[in-house]
Amino acid sequence: MQFPTFQQLIQHIIYGITVGGIYALVAMGFTIIYNATDVINFAQGGFVMLGAMIMVSLNTTLNLPMPLAFFLSILIVTAIGIIFERAAINPVKNASVITLIIITVGASIFFSGIALPIWGQDPIYAKPFSSGDPVSFLGAKISLQQLWVLGITAVIVVAVQLFYKYTIIGKAMRATAINRTAARLMGINVRLMVLCSFALSAAVGAGAGMAIAPVAHASYDMGSMLGLKGFCAAVLGGLGNGVGAVVGGFTIGIIERLAIGFAPLGYSGYKDAVAFIILLVILFLKPSGLFGTSQK
Amino acid sequence: MIRIQSLSTFYGNIQALRGVSLHVDDGEIVTLLGANGAGKTSLLNTICGLVNSRSGTVNFGEKDITNTSPEKIVKLGISQVPEGRQLFSELSVKENLIMGAYQHYRKRKKEVYNHLEQIFHIFPILKERQEQQAGTLSGGEQQMLAIGRALMSRPKLLLLDEPSMGLAPKIVSEIFKIITDLREQQKTTILLVEQNAHVALKVADRGYILETGRIVLQGSSEELLENKEIKRAYLGRGYKEVWE
Ligand SMILES: Nc1ncnc2c1ncn2[C@@H]1O[C@H](COP(=O)(O)OP(=O)(O)OP(=O)(O)O)[C@@H](O)[C@H]1O
Ligand SMILES: [Mg+2]
Q1: Least CB-CB distance to A175: which of B71, B82, B88?
Q2: b/e per residue A229-266 (b: at least 16 CB within 10 A)
Q3: Does the CB atom of residue B11 touch ligand 1 within 6 A?
Q4: Fewer CB within 10 A of the terminal residue: chain A, N end or C end?
């Protein structure tokens, strides 16, 4: 057993919060689509990966400035989300939820299958969003990219909340999630709401991938693990609960990082197991998740 | 206003409507009475496009609207207050009302907010509670919200599915007063589905009796109130002796 110093502890927590923010965004992506369709979108990790890879390509290969690459990548991945829904989800009439979930698993394989020949097997280098020395906090160091991750997470979380609260489409999406039949009686096109949820979810996923790319390895298969962790976070928070997804994301990020910090030498390779252990524990103790009220 | 001819609707193999014909003229209040499972909700949902009919036609004005999608039905001016209110329980009262005007909102926002004030005028309690979650309202308030929400789309024809369900008599008469006011003041045409024949026939001009998917009786409210079969089946125990 290693006993980290206070400073190391803070350092771990900061790392945990950083990666937790990404899990939170991925979990939000799951939540958005789940609320609209009851479907767990296993292609969510694909959106994350595509966001990162497309941004890096636009930035390094096409030499576009980073902010432009960032926004273009969001737009492209959003378009991919829309095409995915129109091509693979919408045409399947009267599909059961399980059929749709299997389609998303297929799509996830498809996305990494396309990414592999384009970007190759090795991680590609993503430039940090800004250069400069890390800042100190309680003796620990925070890199500027970590601050970017936190900032982007915060902006996306707030933007999605504002969208749901103040736009008519956002309200209609919430209404549809609450009572689909009533939404139809109001003249809301619920299939359009499903499309919107895929678009929004893709955009959020892309944001997560782009923010984390300079910190983690950006590669064709980065989506699968991030997707699974985000899924664990969404379940931990209570599937379908937006606040829960965010809290779940940070919780898993921090616990995972602390577990690495406290793990006996040689055992930190088990870090990826942490999220799944948390998932099993929560399913065992409170299947509806931290913020869930009832099982759907 | 609306004319339904020989409408038949199935759920899989279960036939819910067996050739139903009825009509509602402009400005009328017509009630559709029937016991549990008679097919009342099925009829309203077939009109609204939530379920498709297998045969028969629905005409709205001059237009054939058989098996039209719910979005288009709302656009044409038919609005339903569904059974059990079906509110968006976690949305605020105001948001529920705005959802009722979903199709007008983007193009005619100002009109929608004017209309919201009119709804608040009809239901002052909703104005007081506008920021509250719909699910926390009392039963009567929820029914008012469901009606207000349906009115937000400015329907020509309002379909009400058992608005008296689960409410105290005092609240029921309040709601039925509003229904008659709607006809007087807004010229809204109303098809009122009820099990409570007593109150329904009091406000309606005409009525139909639906039994296991068929219209078995129709007539003016006075005729139906005097009908012995109706008294026995729908007007309760007190009338039993009259029948016997
Ligand atoms: N979604 C459905 N699937 C299968 N059968 C249904 C469905 N909805 C209604 N039914 C059946 O159709 C028949 C008519 O039901 P409907 O709900 O229209 O009756 P109702 O007159 O509205 O009754 P209530 O007064 O209880 O609301 C019933 O036998 C019911 O079991
Ligand atoms: Mg019914």
Answers
A1: B88
A2: bbbbbbbbbbbbbbebbbbbbbbbbbbbbbbbbebeee
A3: yes
A4: N
Return the SS3 of A189.
coil
* CA distance linking residue A123 with residue A176, whole number of Å: 40
User: Both tokens of residue A213?
Assistant: 């790319």
- The three-state DSSP-derived secondary structure of B146-202 is HHHHHHCCCCCEEEEECCCCCCCHHHHHHHHHHHHHHHHHHCCEEEEEECCHHHHHH
How far A204 CA sits from the closest chain B CA (Å)? 24
Domains along the sequence of chain B with CATH = 1-77+156-238 (3.40.50.300), 85-154 (no CATH)
Q: Whose CA is nearest to atom 6 of ligand 1?
A: B11
Q: Is B51 helix (H, G, I), strand (E, B) or coil?
A: coil
A3 pLDDT above the threshold of 90: no
Indicate the pLDDT class of residue B242, thresholds 50, 70 and 90.
very low
pLDDT of B233 higher than 80: no
Question: pTM for this one?
Answer: 0.89
Task: Collect all residues with Cβ–Cβ distance below 8 Å to B211 and sequence separation of at least 6.
Answer: B34, B35, B38
- Contact call for residues A208 and A77 (beta carbons, < 8 A): no
Q: Rg for chain B (alpha carbons), in Å?
A: 18
Other C-beta atoms closer than 10 Å to the C-beta of B159 total 26
Closest CA to B222 of B36, B31, B9: B31
**Extents of the domains making up chain A:** 6-224
Which band of pLDDT confidence, cut at 50, 70 and 90, is reported for residue A240? confident
Q: Which residues pair with B7 in a beta bridge?
A: B20
Residue B117 beta carbon below 6 angstroms from any ligand 1 atom: no
Distance CA(A47)–CA(A53), nearest Å, equals: 10
B89 contacts A168? CB cut-off 8 A = no
Q: Quote ipTM for the complex.
A: 0.91
Rounded CA separation B51/B70 (Å): 9
Q: Smallest Cα–Cα separation from A193: which of B219, B171, B71? A: B71
- Provide the 8-state DSSP code for B131: T
B18: left (phi over 0), alpha (psi -120 to 50) or beta: beta
Q: Are A189 and B71 in contact (CB under 8 A)?
A: yes
Mean pLDDT of chain B: 92
Q: Do B86 and A179 touch (CB under 8 A)?
A: yes
Q: Whose CA is nearest to atom 1 of ligand 1?
A: B11
Q: Contact B149/A174, CB-based, under 8 Å?
A: no
**Kindly report the CA angle at B204 between B200 and B210, in degrees rounded to 5?**
65
Nearest-angstrom CA–CA distance, A11 and B73: 59
Q: Is any ligand 1 atom within 6 A of the Cβ of residue B14?
A: yes
Tokens of B205: 């001009």
CA dist A282 to A231, A237, A238, A252, A286, Å? 13, 9, 10, 12, 5
